[in-house]
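Subgroup meeting minutes
Present: P.N., E.W., G.H.
Scribe: E.W.

1. P.N. recapped why we're keeping a running log of single-chain structure predictions: easier to compare across weeks, and new members can see raw inputs and outputs side by side.
2. G.H. added today's entry (156 aa).
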Amino acid sequence: MSEPAATERVLATRRDTVRLGRDVARVLQPGDLVLLFGELGAGKTFLARSILRALGVPRETPVASPTFTIVQEYETSRGTLLHVDLYRLRDGDMATELSRLGLRERRAEGALLVVEWADDHEARLGAVALGVSLRLDATPLGRRARLHGPRASELR
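Output recorded in log:
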């Protein structure tokens, strides 16, 4: 069976990104992997935060990019979600580092993974449920999100 065609959404406002985060949260299943792609400042962390808020992580709980910690764990209404930032794993033995993080094992246990900067690691992370490519536009439209993967067809 072939993968469904990618869809695109305009994210003209922060509210549009929050809405996308709610929609993504609605379709996630245990063990799903969501990859967030985009340039610096494209909105990856804001989208991850929107997903976490939609899954019940309280506003008082800080959600920042885990650039230095690499993995930040949250308990949500759907179980554990690991927010991962692989930006710093661009050099060295990536396979060893990814293995050390135990992301595949955590997925097998049912943890959700939302991964920023996965560009160089996609093949090592396993089957992708949803990929979101964020792009800044030089127009009043703001940002665009290209959604691909099996869960993309479930988003309205």
